[in-house]
User: What shape does this take?
Amino acid sequence: GKKNSYARKAEELKAISLASAMETVEKLEVKLAEFAKTHKHAIQHDPAFRAKFLDMCAPLGVDPLSAEKGFWGSMLGIGEFYYELSVKVAEVCLASRSRNGGIIRVSEVKDILTQRGTKFSFADSKSKSSYSEDDIITSVKKLSKLGSGFRTINVGKAILIVSVPEELDDDHMEVMNVAEDDGNEAYGVVTTDSMERALGWDEERSNRALELLLGK
Assistant: This one.
């Protein structure tokens, strides 16, 4: 009898804690929604604030990026904003692929979009919103969820967008690290000589890695 009552008690406690956890999440979601309403303008127009807001949402499993016309989509229009941004980012990546082999720095994408004067507006806002490198990274995550082969990787201090589906193996990463290190050649330049010097590879391995990277 005692054992059973303990087991029952344990189940009851589990049920109570689950219920209170659900309630807590619901309360937090309501709070988050209130926060979003109050700070709507900042979320839409201040990239740093937007990044913080997305960080707040993540642990709750709230996805304000879904462009569906749910509460978040209709209220903030964030999903649509990232969708538009991801389309432009993809265009830049694909257009520059012949030059860079499908690997481009996030900062360069931002520079190109800025030069083009690309601006995005949230659904209910007349003024155009600025966007940050963080926003571009978020939009690439959106693209990668679509199975597009787009993803970001960190090389040295730089964050690069890779738009080629081939998996980058360790050799590729090594080559990119050499390209990042301007102690070898000019920044972003890599030659088989500098690879042999920096990595101790023979010519064949250096050439193979370069050819793979350039998609030859």
Summary: The mean pLDDT is 77. The first strand starts at residue 103 and ends at 105. The radius of gyration is 24 Å. Strands lie at 103-105, 151-155, 158-162.
